[in-house]
Amino acid sequence: MFANNEEQNYATDFLFDKAISFMKNKKDKGKNFAVMLSIADPHAPNEVRAPYNEMYNHISFQLPSTGKKAMRLNPALPDWGQVDTFSPETAESNISDWENDTVLQKGMQNVFGMIKLIDDNVGKMLQFFDDENLADDTIVIFTSDHGDMMGEHGRLNKGVPYKASAQVPMIMRWPNKIDSGKIIKTAYSSVDFAPSLLGMMSVEAKNINSSGIDGSSEIMRSGQISFNEEQIRFLTDSKMKRWAAAITGQYKLVLSKDGPWLFDMIKDPDEMINYYEDPKYTQLASTLKNALIDTIDKFNFPLKQRSYLADTPECWDSKNEISGWDNNLCSDLNDIQNRPACQWDFVSSQCPRVCGECCHDSSGEFWLFKAMRTCAEIQEEERFCQHSAAQLFCPESCGLC
């Protein structure tokens, strides 16, 4: 039925053509229009029509440096990003397998092809606006619901708060109203889309129940760079209930059962370093943490149903490969045959908990049974110690020392 006719019937082309036809019909009748065009690609099963399915066959994808470091556990990922198969002992073979996986390579080549096809169709739509003298009076917005890890931090798909997964484009064109080439570095979220667009059109949103921010004044303001570092937006894991995050233009704080992770996305654009315990970030971390905890509670983020650490435990074993002892982890010291290694200072300093060098209650708070807890409360409520979060945060009060 569709033989030799893919260009008209492939979903991306078909939907763009239908949208253009709809707008042409409205324009010819002298009517206004609003179109939301949702394109499924790029998406599994990572297939695309000719000639886009061969355009990028010359590219051989290497695992990104963040992926190689993650597989080597050097440094290890937070629990919310970790993959069970990552091990320094098998890292090099896993990296080789990834880079030589023909199915994976072809899939990523086709992802590039899908993006190129979308890009060409966007160009076709913009040309339609020019041809019909609609360009100056039409707001065009290109955005997405999520990204894809594409091998960053050793992962594929989505579901984690890293930029590759969570940061999406928001590209706008409105000639003579929005400065061409303007870049807004202020943090915004998908919930801000509707109030911002309505604000740009001076439409009063009377009956819209939205927690979004109207960013229209920043969008319409003249100037090439705009940056409000004070604005905080929020992200949450959904079904897995593993994490929640607070984000500004430069910083990102993630709370989970793994303890707080604070990223400085300018100093560390690859999101590899946890700055939470750095004294230079103390005030910033406190501001983001308080805002995030309030938001988790107010909007019933899924993490509220689980336990999470609002502060770093006093006794904390590194999850990285033990520096100076290749292919070994702190968790390996649970094996009785490996325990003698705790006699080495360089091992016990990286693994103080498993080596018995540290067994103290932690200052700060953790979330358990729908409330913030401290170790002082644990002493009064023994039932809390049945939970791993309490045992990790308050080992002394839980009688583990």
From TrEMBL:
GO terms for molecular function: arylsulfatase activity. Pfam families: Sulfatase. It comes from the Eukaryota. Gene3D superfamilies: Alkaline Phosphatase, subunit A. Residues 6-202 form the Sulfatase N-terminal domain. Keywords: Hydrolase. InterPro entries: Alkaline_phosphatase_core_sf (IPR017850), Sulfatase (IPR050738), Sulfatase_N (IPR000917). Belongs to the sulfatase family. PANTHER family: ARYLSULFATASE FAMILY MEMBER, ENDO-4-O-SULFATASE. This is Sulfatase N-terminal domain-containing protein. It comes from Chaetoceros debilis. The lineage of its organism: Eukaryota, Sar, Stramenopiles, Ochrophyta, Bacillariophyta.
